[in-house]
């Protein structure tokens, strides 16, 4: 191999061309899915309604000056996540058959989420002050990390546990609602003749609602970044054969990092 070929190989390895080919190839395979059942308008309305209700509570809680002891958006997300699980069972929305092993599915998820994370990572690097908008949500629970006082080991440990619990709750509920239910239902609707167009609509709608859910807390610019992240999660969900566990893991990791950064900057 000559010097030019070596440089080309290094560049291709850096941009992970093989990973991108594998991702787009799997998305093409998934667009050839022949679903056993097609869902009607009632299923679509139910999925959109369950995806919208928590967002309404987020807006109400943000702009309501009379705060209650219970955090209503948290309750709304939890309740709607349970309803989403029930509807997935009712509509028989199990994950799709795939010839890929778990290592390959994890690689596909990693590639899609990494692409979706690009706007959020750029935001963290060039405008970290915008992340302080999220600080208020977790300061009370993880106050030792948010304060300037010296941290004891137990205080640090308790704060980390709180961050982990928050990130896990958000990852499980949001992915169950926006990806597990909404995308699966929209993909099985008869909107368009081509399945790839249905998939595109499912990912776009899911990402828009996902971004909208973060608007009251983050503001417009971070919401756009969340839109990109939602697209990455949606693509990952489809590429992995509608397996939620992979996108939940990456959502949890992203939220854990973003919460810690927002507390420490």
- Provide the low-confidence segments as ranges: 7-12
Alpha-carbon distance between the termini? Answer: 47 Å
Count, helices: 11
Q: Averaged pLDDT, please?
A: 84
- Classify the helix fraction into a percent range: over 70%
Annotation, overall tally of beta strands? 0
Q: Rg to the nearest angstrom?
A: 20 Å
The profile of the biggest β sheet is: none
Question: Could you spell the SSE succession in H and E letters?
Answer: HHHHHHHHHHH
Main structural class: mainly alpha
Anisotropy-based shape: globular
Strand-residue proportion: under 5%
Q: Can you characterise this structure?
A:
There is one protein chain. The protein is mainly alpha-helical and 265 residues long. Helices cover 77% and strands 0% of the residues. It is globular.
SSE topology:
Blueprint: H1 3-14, H2 17-30, H3 41-63, H4 72-90, H5 102-126, H6 132-139, H7 143-146, H8 153-187, H9 195-218, H10 220-239, H11 244-264
Helix pairs in contact: 2-5, 3-4, 3-8, 3-9, 4-8, 5-10, 5-11, 8-9, 8-10, 8-11, 9-10
């Amino acid at each position: 191999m000559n010097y030019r070929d070596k440089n080309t190989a290094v560049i291709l390895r850096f941009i992970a061309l093989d990973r991108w080919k594998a991702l787009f190839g799997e998305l093409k395979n998934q667009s050839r899915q022949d679903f056993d059942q097609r869902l009607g308008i009632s299923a679509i309305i139910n999925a959109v309604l369950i995806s919208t209700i928590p967002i309404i509570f987020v807006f109400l809680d943000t702009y309501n000056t009379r705060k209650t002891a219970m955090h209503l958006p948290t309750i709304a997300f939890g309740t709607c996540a349970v309803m989403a699980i029930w509807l997935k069972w009712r509509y028989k929305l199990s994950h799709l058959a795939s010839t890929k092993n778990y290592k390959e599915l994890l690689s596909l998820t990693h590639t899609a989420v990494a692409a979706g994370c690009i706007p959020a990572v750029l935001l963290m690097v060039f405008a970290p002050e915008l992340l302080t908008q999220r600080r208020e949500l977790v300061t009370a629970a993880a106050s030792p990390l948010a304060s300037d006082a010296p941290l004891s080991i137990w205080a640090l440990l308790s704060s980390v546990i709180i961050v982990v619990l928050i990130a896990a709750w958000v990852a499980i509920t949001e992915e169950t609602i926006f990806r597990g239910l909404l995308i699966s239902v929209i993909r099985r609707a008869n909107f368009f003749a081509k399945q790839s167009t249905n998939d595109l609509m499912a990912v776009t709608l899911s990402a828009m609602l996902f971004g909208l859910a973060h608007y009251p807390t983050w503001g417009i610019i971070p919401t756009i970044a969340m839109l990109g992240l939602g697209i990455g999660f949606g693509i990952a969900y489809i590429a992995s054969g509608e397996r939620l566990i992979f996108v939940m893991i990456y959502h949890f990791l992203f939220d854990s990092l973003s919460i810690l950064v927002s507390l420490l900057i």
